[in-house]
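Sequence in, structure out.
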Amino acid sequence: QDPITWMVSSSRIPSRLGKKDPIDELAVAGGLRGKAIEVVKTESGVFDVPAHSEIVIEGTVDIYNMEEEGPYHEMYGYMGIKKEKNYVMTVDTVTHRNDPWVMNSFTGVVTEYITAPQRAENIYRLQKQFPQVVDYDSPHDSQGIVYISIKKDEPGQAFKVAHNSAMFNPLARVTVVVDDDIDVLDSTAVRFAIGSRWQPATATKMFENRMAFPLDPASPDRKTSSKVIIDATRQWPEEGGPPFYQELNRTVFERAEPDAMARVMQRWPGKLNPG
């Protein structure tokens, strides 16, 4: 299925219901991809659907009679809250291709969602205010935790970036900011920075009653949560850090023997982990 069609189907497109010129979601999708979406009529003849759809389900929704829904497994690893009333669809017709691919969302601790667009949006938003921001990640296996790397050029900068992220991102219960030599996509590297650069007493701030994610099981009202921001960058003297930091072992080693690991891996391929 065309990814742009998927994206537009769940985006907020003005419906203009009742107007003479309602906005067509498929037209929006075609405009974004630079090429019209091929469509066909459904079995009922009422709807246009993408011609290459795997499965088409037609039915009606009764806006007056509702039923219970859920609860479902949610991304934090806990059961969600049951909805007492939700709309119900009565299926009339199902059509599909031969051997169709069935798309599903298996909710749980590890999300299957493609989060690159969300990550890019957070980087873009932060960099507009803080050009020093290098990268951003919210690990799939640790909901509620955010890692941000920056190229720090003034004392206290990590706190400013972390505070901005924590206040505007409901998922950011714990925000960790690291230096730009740390790959935020590598949780081991982030833990290394926390263990060797973070000073808990002076490089930590906590806040109460901040915006929470509705599925957060620890939120008392499903609206607010306390949050913590951690500055795991190298602490400058002005921030209470040491006069200077020693070089990393790996940096010294690679400067002295830049091709040593390549020679070792060539001689003993598959025997060592070069990371």
